[in-house]
Specification:
single chain, 210 residues, Ribosomal Protein L25, Chain P, RNA Polymerase Alpha Subunit, Chain A, domain 2, 2 domains, 4-stranded mixed beta sheet, 3 helices
């Protein structure tokens, strides 16, 4: 069973008239699926936003429709206003609870690398990773220990923790976290190289004159 729930109502307002819904604090949504014909619904914008901030873009959400229908969904896409960022529309994918799904799960680094010193910084190469799992096994996020991260030893998908019922889809050697030089360190190294270069050129010129 999903640990995120949303209440919804059947929607009859379509087209440009949906602006009226948004003025009432409602967001138009569509539920669809392999065996589910598209259904137009409306949900409370504030509650939908709360679900999204709780991991709704990867976690299973139970949608309870006024009148008795229930859907277990994954929120596939969300449209927001480019200026106000208010929710404009969302697509809900009704899942088969016995069928594995491919979803992207947020990755969170835990701990501080022992090798972290001045001039180096932790860089997150992947904010999320693709996994395959049954809807009830999809985690809200994946935490990985990065205390052993160093310049020579990145954290890869193969280093992510094993989670029951979850399979990582990407290559195990793909980098998730790495350690890189900060811009200040790069500039310092570039300046050092630039200072040394005239000496080499001068020496070459002297040899040519001789």
């Amino acid at each position: 069973m999903a640990d995120l729930t949303l209440s919804a109502q059947t929607r009859t307002t379509i087209g440009r008239q949906v602006r009226q819904l948004r003025n009432q604090g409602l967001t138009p949504v569509v539920v669809y699926g392999k065996t589910q014909s598209p259904q137009s619904l409306q949900v409370n914008e504030r509650f939908l936003d709360r679900a999204l901030h709780s991991g709704g873009l990867s976690r299973l959400v139970q949608v309870d429709v006024e009148g008795g229908d229930h859907y277990n969904v994954l929120i596939r896409s969300v449209q927001r206003h480019p200026v106000t960022h208010r929710l404009l529309h969302a697509d809900f994918y009704a899942v088969n609870m016995t069928e594995k799904q491919h979803v992207n799960i947020q990755v969170i680094g835990v701990g501080k690398p022992a090798a972290l010193i001045t001039g180096l910084m932790v860089y997150q190469n992947l904010d999320s990773v693709a996994v395959e799992a049954l809807p009830t096994d999809i985690p809200g996020a994946i935490e990985v220990d990065i205390t052993k991260l160093s310049v020579e030893t990145p954290v890869t998908i193969g280093d992510l923790p094993a989670i029951a019922g979850v399979a990582y889809v990407a290559d195990a050697d793909e980098t998730v976290f790495s350690m890189i030089a900060t811009r200040a360190q790069e500039v310092e190294e570039e300046d050092a190289a630039a200072t040394a270069e005239p000496e080499v050129i001068a020496k070459g010129k002297k040899d040519d004159d001789e």
